[in-house]
Write a structure and sequence with these properties.
The protein is α+β, with helices and mostly antiparallel strands. It contains two helices and five strands. Strands 1-2-3 form a three-stranded antiparallel sheet, covered by helices on one side. A two-stranded antiparallel sheet has the order 4-5. It is globular, with a radius of gyration of 14 Å.
Length: 79
């Protein structure tokens, strides 16, 4: 797996750093964010189960452009 760095939270403090990458081989977007608390996980479960192999994470809305860039990069990798 070769991750291609796309961007990091522009307001990072260097320690808590939501980050976005694209895995070109698997054609996936990879996101590092803050772990959801139990209350948020419970709200997310209203849409369906949360398997042990999955997680709910939070990232700040200010990273929307970085996520768009990752989505475009992943889409380009598919073509």
């Amino acid at each position: 797996m070769a991750l291609r760095f796309i961007g990091i939270d522009p307001n990072t403090d260097g320690d808590h750093c939501p980050t976005v990458w694209v895995d070109d081989e698997r054609q996936e977007i990879v996101i590092q964010g803050w772990k959801a608390d139990a209350a948020l996980e419970e709200q997310a479960r209203t849409a369906g189960p949360l398997p042990d192999t999955e997680a709910v994470v939070r990232i700040p809305a200010r990273m929307a452009q970085i996520i768009r860039e990752a989505a475009d990069a992943a889409d380009t990798a598919v073509r």
